[in-house]
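Batch job 17 of 40 flagged for manual review because the log was empty.
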Amino acid sequence: MISKVEYSQALPYVTLDGSLIRELMHPRTHSNQAQSLAEATVAIGATTRLHRHTKTEELYHFTNGEGLMTLGDEVFAVKAGDTVCIHPGTAHRVQNTGDRPLKILCCCTPPYADDDTELLDD
């Protein structure tokens, strides 16, 4: 069975952390089962909300732009081409410090779920 999603069919929406998300592959709509793949866009000058996931391990692969990543107690620069592993329970957020949208491919196992997202800031 082939499961293919065209980018234009992945309609964007805003997640709890404030980023614009396109679900490129997710079990609730596609035939995959164990993970999800999404593209997150953080607008110029914007910062996602500090949050953590209890169950989900995430891989962030930055495809465009530059910014600052908060991961636990660490803050470090990120740019297109970088990949970051976010272990379950680790607080994280991304700030766009560049002059173009910051784009991130997000792979989640188990798949992303709002009820596994705990916001940590007001």
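Reviewer: the log was empty due to a logging misconfiguration, but the result itself is present. The chain has one domain: 14-119. Unflagging and moving on to job 18.
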